[in-house]
Automatic annotation (TrEMBL):
InterPro entries linked: GDSL, GDSL_lipolytic_enzyme, SGNH_hydro_sf, SGNH_plant_lipase-like
Protein name as catalogued: GDSL esterase/lipase
Organism, as annotated: Papaver atlanticum
Signal peptide segment: 1-23
Lineage, highest ranks first: Eukaryota, Viridiplantae, Streptophyta, Embryophyta, Tracheophyta
Gene3D superfamilies hit by this protein: SGNH hydrolase
The family this protein is said to belong to: Belongs to the 'GDSL' lipolytic enzyme family.
Domain of life assignment: Eukaryota
Pfam families cross-referenced by the UniProt entry: Lipase_GDSL
Keywords: Signal
GO molecular function: hydrolase activity, acting on ester bonds
Length: 351
């Protein structure tokens, strides 16, 4: 009896391992588009103030090297790549230290500060989403020369595409500059962004993408920078901004459902980041965090980019106790937790 159970267990484990290997084999590469949440250093190569290629950024990355990632270590997409057994981190397409042999298994075209609205990138002087798409077309040509037409087509069809942006459209574009807010009310602007997102997904599909994950907004009102503006209420989360994020996410969820019905052969999912980040903020002890209101860099209340460098001596000693690295971005540890949740939920449908 014991022998029969043991054999059964071995058989089940063997099948599980085979399934895992086959599942990973179906994702030969991870291809990323978006903003600072997934930019691994593309902004290093363009003229913009939106950079993070200096310390203390990257202090917990390999060798303590600041790569341009907006964190103390790896990004969510790096952790996803590692979890799928592809490679430990995803390089930026404009990074001269990497070539097509590296990009063939994973690449990010993301540019910190961009959005679904082209005006957002114009305001922040970074790469607009249409430019990220143009770089992808260039990548597709290089991949075809590197792998051959049939192999490259297979890679592009089976790759996992991750899209992560939207927050900058609201915080910088809509609420800070009086342009879009004069054209649209907030509900109309959310619909405008969702429409742009839908068009982008279809553009990717026409270029070979089949497995696509799209993320919307995190709880914007709980970002340290916005908390710091809410002094009267004790630096609690700004519910107004959180509601904007939730409403926008709902529109993206509906978009995903519509695209699934309209486009044959596409697999597209909405990857919820709002929920996991909110749970970490509300129950920090469950994840080993101690600080939820401030970031690690500088005073943790307003510092982002160069301000982190100027206030480097004030940075925390142990970022593993912090959810946020700077006033807008999450830490390496938080990114790892988010990635683990996504791999087990929405991304499980694609991998």
């Amino acid at each position: 009896m014991v022998y029969q159970i043991s054999v059964a267990c071995v058989f089940i484990i063997h099948c599980f391992l085979l399934f895992s290997v086959d599942g990973r084999a179906n994702v030969p590469a991870i291809i990323v588009f978006g903003d600072s949440t997934v930019d691994a250093g593309n902004n290093n190569q363009i003229i913009t103030v939106g950079k993070a290629n200096f310390k203390p950024y990257g202090r917990d990355f390999e060798g303590g090297k600041p790569t341009g990632r907006w964190s103390n270590g790896r990004l969510v997409t790096d952790y996803i790549s590692n979890a799928l057994g592809i490679k430990p981190s995803i390089p930026a397409y404009l990074d001269p230290n990497f070539g097509i042999e590296d990009f063939a298994t994973g690449v990010t075209f993301a540019s910190a500060g961009t959005g679904y609205d082209n005006l957002t990138a114009h305001i922040t002087t970074v790469l607009p989403l249409w430019r990220e798409l143009e770089y992808f077309k260039d990548y597709k040509e290089k991949l075809t020369r590197f792998q051959g037409k049939d192999k490259a087509t297979q890679t592009l069809n089976e790759a996992l595409y991750i899209i992560s942006l939207g927050t900058v459209d609201f915080l910088v574009n809509y609420f800070l500059f009086p342009v879009r807010s004069l054209e649209y009310n907030i509900d109309e602007y959310e619909k405008f962004l969702a429409q742009n997102a839908g068009n982008f997904i279809k553009d990717l599909y026409n270029l070979g993408a089949r497995k696509i994950s799209i993320s919307g907004s995190a709880p914007m009102g709980c970002l340290p920078m916005l908390r710091n503006l809410n002094i009267v209420m004790g630096r609690t989360c700004f519910e107004f901004y959180n509601k904007v994020g939730r409403d926008f996410n709902e529109k993206l969820i509906k978009l995903v459902d519509n695209v699934r019905k309209e486009v044959d052969g596409i697999q597209v999912v909405f990857s919820d980041v709002y929920g996991p980040v909110t749970k970490m903020i509300q129950n920090p002890c469950l994840y080993g965090f101690e600080e939820v209101k401030r970031g690690c860099c500088g005073t943790g209340m307003t510092e982002v980019s160069y301000l982190c460098m100027l206030a480097k001596s004030l940075s925390c000693k142990d970022p593993t106790k912090y959810i946020f690295w700077d006033a807008l971005h999450t830490t390496d540890k938080a990114n790892g937790i988010i990635a683990d949740i996504l791999v087990k939920t929405s991304l499980a449908e694609l991998i």
